[in-house]
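Worked example (supplementary).
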Amino acid sequence: MFYRLSGVHHTRYASARQLWPLPADRWQVAAVFVLAVAAPLYMSDLYLSSYMLPWLVWSTATLALTLLMGVAGQLHFGFGAVMAIGAYTSIHLTQAGVPFELALLVAGLLAALIGCLFGAAALRVKGLYLVMATLAMQFLVDWVIVNVKAISGGAVATLQAPAVEFLWIPVDTLVARYYVALLWAVIVTLLMLNIKRTSFGRALVAVRDKDFAAAVIGVNIFKYKLLAFFTSSFLGGVTGAILAFCFYRAVTPQQFSFDISIQLVAMVLVGGLGSTIGAFLGAGFVLLAPIVLLNIVAPMVEAGWLPVSASLMAHIPLMIYGAMIIGFLLFEPLGLAKIYDNARKYFLVWPFRHTQS
Amino acid sequence: MNIEFFLELLANGALTGLMYGMVALGIVLIYKSSGVLNFSQGAMVMTAGYVTWLMTSFGLSIYAAVALGIVAMFVFGLLIERLLLRSMVGQPIIMIVMLTLGLDVFLRGLVPGILGTSPKHLDIGVGMAPLILGDVFINRVYLVGGVVALALFALAALFFRTRLGTKLRAVSDDHVSSWSVGISVEHAVAMSWGLAGVCAVGAGTIWGTVQGVEWSLTALLFPAVAVVILGGIDSILGALLGGIVVGVLGSVIPGYVDPLVGGSTRDVVTSIIILLTIMIRPYGMFGREDIERI
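After joint prediction of all chains, the assembly is encoded as:
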């Protein structure tokens, strides 16, 4: 706690280049990891199933999207559709008797292939037009899923997720489902943390910053834009399957509608574009802030302090959600990741602020 | 497969398209002046519908309600620009798109939350009985809507010939050179938001009469986006013709295909229009092509 930069002198490149060069950060990451692994021990089932589990899965989805939007700079307003493809593929495959592990992989691959079609638009246009193209594809995928009975079983049908095993452990209890989601979240997080240290990640960043300029220095923008869509959609597809199996345990078309795509973009932006910790903070904030604020407002209304009608009460979460998006964009466009970063930097050198570089 | 059925789909589709064009006109005005694609135009249409309904529920006639609605929505548009959009100048496009989407979500919560979620009935006093021309049935409200839309388009075209409209055209050409000749870009952008609010009153009143004033009016955004993409985001003529094309295709194709595949192909047609336009000619039929430099 006390001047945590003290005694940190890197004498080898390897130690300076590691993921967390500061011991304080390593301790923090280890503590968070232990807390996450031990969550079933100290959390009630209600909190685990309705807060912790969705938070983990949505954070993973946000990580997948921030890889595309933040690192590679390709706007995507149809990520819900990509996740839907993963979810439906995995459910149909496991119902046909394919092992869960293989079904997850195939779900990811199919989502990645169709995701590359979204990417095909990115080869032609960018910016605003890419937003519209992905948005239109979201509607097309939604329509195909709803109207092709072989996929969804009808517009209002619900497909139950069959009982599955993951690495010979049955995924039937809440704890097992939590650990599957946690494992996937850890894998994606490690990937995201490391991707900017690879040539692939640097190429994506070059394409994001200016694609013509990237082409001039020899980055094949055609290839890397498609690869960005492929990777991100693969992760998104598997996350969709995890969402269907671990959280909803059933799948309907409404779970992956256009609103979900917007929500994912909101999570990315509230967290901070391209930031790994921001994805976790953003997903948590977008999911939980409306609930928490509603829980604050509700007792005040019951006590008669605020004159709020029942119909307005029902709309308060939506209003908070919208106001939150607007507020973050206006007052902290770099998102929660920036706020976290400021606080971290402040405490790193506390109480010797003058040493801050 | 008779000719009357086709003509009926064609006529009503064209009128619907003109009404879509009315929503799209607001988007075009804002894009022209500031390069912001306003994804909250659907929510503004809904708000305008609610405002008009609120005025009539005070006992005002529909004309007085629309007139007051125009004033209210003009101020509303100015306020949005001043409070939200002005501080976003120079931010990346994704931030601005998301800001207008956030505004859309916020209004969708706020307005029905305060004024009630059940569909509100709005009556512009033309009756519900269809107009019969030969063997073709035409919805009277659609006809009025089409006329109002054409009037709005004509007004918009005339407006760009006035002094203020010339300033707006200058701003849409280039912000920096407008500043250098003493045109206030901020005023022009604010004005375009106000005018978009005025367009929203027309669209909100007509669409509110057609399908009732409720939150689903925000869904008009999607066909309106197709209209502006097809016509060119910065072209008023494009919004007019694009509207007719989107309306006709969105009426004729579902008319024949819906019975075969079981419904709701209209959104698919709209999506395909967006995709094909972006793939073949991203700047639309009449839009200005931007040339990008490093």
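Two points are worth noting when inspecting this output. Chain B has a mean pLDDT of 86. The CA atoms of residues 174 and 293 of chain B lie 16 Å apart.
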